[in-house]
Amino acid sequence: MLEVKRLIVHLRVGDQVLRAVDDVDLFIERGECVGIVGESGSGKTTLARAMLRLLPAVELAEFSGEVLFKGEDIRAMPEGALQQMRRAGTFSMVFQDPLGYLNPTQRVGAQIAEALPSGLRASAVRQRTLDLLREVGMREAQLVARRYPHELSGGMRQRALIALALAPSPTLLVADEPTTSLDATVQLQVLETLRRLHRERDMALVVITHDLGLIAELCDRVYVMRFGKVVECADVFTLFEAPKHPYTATLIELSTRGAAPARATTADEVVT
Amino acid sequence: MIVVVLLVFGMLQLTPGDPVQAMVGQYPVPAEFREAIERHYHLNDPFLSRLWQYFANLAHGDLGFSFQMQRPVLGLILERAPRTLMLAASGFLLGIPIGMAVGVLSATSQNPHLDRFWTTTTLVAYAIPGFWLGQLLVILFAMQLGWFPTQGMAPLVSRASGFGWFLERARYLALPAITYAIYEATRVARLMRANVIETLGQGYIVTARAKGLSRPTIIRRHVLRNSSLPVVTIMGYAFGVAMGGAVLIETVFSWPGVGLLLIEAIRARDNQVVVGVVLFVSFAVILMNLIVDLLYCALDPRIRTGS
Amino acid sequence: MNQDIPGPSPTLTSRSEVASARPREALPTSALAVSALLSRLCRTHYGAAGLIILALLVLIGVTAPLLAPFDPTRQVGESLMPPSWTHVMGTDNIGRDLFSLVLYGTRASLAIGFCAALAALVIGGTIGTLAGYRRGLTEAVLMRLAELFQTLPVIIVVLFAIALFGSSFWLLIAAVALAIWPLEARLIYGQFINLREREFVAAAIVADLSTAHIVLREILPNALPPVIVQVALDASLAILIESGLGFLGLSDANMISWGQLLFAAQDFLNAAWWMSVFPGLAICIAIIGLNLLADGLNEVVNPRAVRAAIGLAA
Fold this sequence. Notes:
The structure holds three protein chains of three kinds.
Chain A: E1 2-13, E2 16-28, E3 33-37, H1 44-51, E4 60-69, E5 72-73, H2 79-87, E6 91-94, H3 108-115, H4 122-135, H5 141-145, H6 154-166, E7 172-176, H7 184-201, E8 204-209, H8 212-218, E9 221-226, E10 229-235, H9 236-241, H10 246-257, H11 259-271
Parallel strand pairs in A: 3-8, 3-9, 6-7, 7-8
Antiparallel strand pairs in A: 1-2, 1-4, 4-5, 9-10
Helix pairs in contact in A: 3-4, 3-6, 4-6, 10-11
Chain B: H1 2-14, H2 19-24, H3 31-40, H4 47-59, E1 65-66, E2 71-72, H5 73-108, H6 112-127, H7 130-144, H8 162-200, H9 203-210, H10 215-253, H11 258-267, H12 271-299, H13 301-304
Antiparallel strand pairs in B: 1-2
Helix pairs in contact in B: 5-6, 5-8, 5-10, 6-8, 7-8, 7-10, 8-10, 9-10, 10-11, 10-12, 11-12
Chain C: H1 10-20, H2 31-43, H3 45-62, H4 64-67, H5 98-133, H6 137-151, H7 154-165, H8 169-195, H9 199-206, H10 211-247, H11 258-266, H12 273-301, H13 304-313
Helix pairs in contact in C: 2-12, 3-5, 3-12, 5-6, 5-8, 5-10, 5-12, 6-8, 7-8, 8-10, 9-10, 10-11, 10-12, 11-12
């Protein structure tokens, strides 16, 4: 369904150019769940955004290769066609930091409604918004819809952002560190929500994370990234049983050794 | 407010020389007058009781008496205040929308030359002192082109009435109001541009783009409101600046407002009026800040829910 | 405390190291460091432009007697003569050469700008430091006072002070400093609030260093960078205030300043546009120079590019 060929993304950082994504090939089949793992700074978030063309043009020093979605190249698409594609629910994205990615001055419901297909009647918009909130597991959907982002807890915000991403009924959902900033129990809830949605909606899911546990729970296939390159690609079982690349082996070993290192990385994310 | 009074009182106490003389200015003080003032302000009493008396007088709206104008200070100020307010208000109403528009245009422009043009324009305009701008406008539009009157608020003799009266006033108001507006607009434009650029870098703009909203829609729904909020916060401060600017701009155009009153009083060493105007302006600015705070609470949900 | 847990790999901890790293090294005190700051400043467009303008103005101020074709205090021609080859900027209402007047005016404006900005830095710095390091009542009282002063329109404060105390050169500087010190105080205070919680301050306290040492050697150098920017802005504000006072005819009557030239111009707007245009331009140039300098300093002192990069990685 989605095929990325020789994708190169160089970002402008101050006076310097960062080779964030360096010649990456990958593909995602219909209804599949694919994980992209790597440590912070390995280029996985940039890759995800580049695939959906969400990087601001001013920050791009170079952006080449192909991103074929059902045969059409998203990378070279004119802005107008791209907007139509997004509105039509082809693909959407769940971001890492739900507070920053929700508008602080608008009610959650209004922000979700904005992502719904245009041309619906007001009552239908309302109904769909509430349905979406219920679908991601919010019991008091009406109350939540009237809240502002800062009035919700971290887990609720994350789920609101998932609801927002689901609004255009996407066939591909990219979730960037969907559980990183959450408590362990809430992590589990969000994980369950994602798994259920993936199954019920027959929607391809791309999960970007440094948490191999999450990958093991959710994904069929995994890409391992380091320094902007894909170093390994395998299905989950093969990856965990017989990692080919030494870096993958290190990652797996570290994540199974105990909770302490994993928590340290999580804390880092919060600090910076 | 109380602290302002304390400060003013403190500075009056620090003034070198005879307090009666300082209060009256450089007019000869008749003996019975001196006694009356000394009694009125309890000048021979100890410090604290003097201070108390001063507060008591103020609480009654007694700002003192202008010896030059032979009128109570409060009356003088109240007569002039609406004119200053009218000038400042028309300047704000004209300048703030223009400034916001320029800021947004400049920040969202995809043409770097356009942005650079506006940035340079506002940078230069920012450095122009308001009163000099006023002089330039007078030279150009009043002297050379003769479109507007140079000074004052209304003709000395006027027979116009109704709409004609209004038009006549508007002609007098035009230049000082434009001066104010340009002054305000440059400040708002710089602030607005910075705000919009900051807002454009926020995550929720990426979210909005991911929703497939068009650029104008994103700017209208997500950028404008969020970057206008800080403009509201500086309104109180801007009002204070405008009150200060009133002194200069009113002088350029001989606009008989509070600012000109202050200058006339300083020149005539009519210190009761000086103190009165300073207190009045402080009061107005503090009041305005209070209003702005309330307004901001009403506009920003983050503060409204008090988290 | 997060940083105490050993990270799984060197690369994974790199971010936390950045977060806990000691703030920038103590500010340039040696000539070498100052020149480094200058060279970095020159690499920003704004900073270089501002520096050039300012250097030129200082040069003009210093060499005014050499540059000025006429004695600015004497009548050297007919009054109100338009600009010509002998009088490039024309003459004023009493026949003085305007070009020479404007050149000499540079001195007063720059002197007042720098002195007042420095005075404000000293007053504001002291108060900000006191409020920032001592907590409790001192902090509350001083900062409320600063806030209050900041609410009042600057020019009103200055006018009030001048109405009461008069306006000689030094009184003028004192009045301007009195009006703008809160800007400095609040900035330094804010810096102190940030810095006093940091590890290296705690380390200094544990090491039992004297309070003076902690404040002056540990915190202050790290608090200064944004303050430098503010000093440049203060100077431009001071020049604006002085020109405003001059324009109102309330500046020191014994000195030649651009504002006073505008005061004289006010009565001759119809007859002699040049009396208003040239001194006003001079003010603008000085203000633009200082603002550009401040922009450039700002870029050097807290580089936005770095922050933008962090936002991008998130």
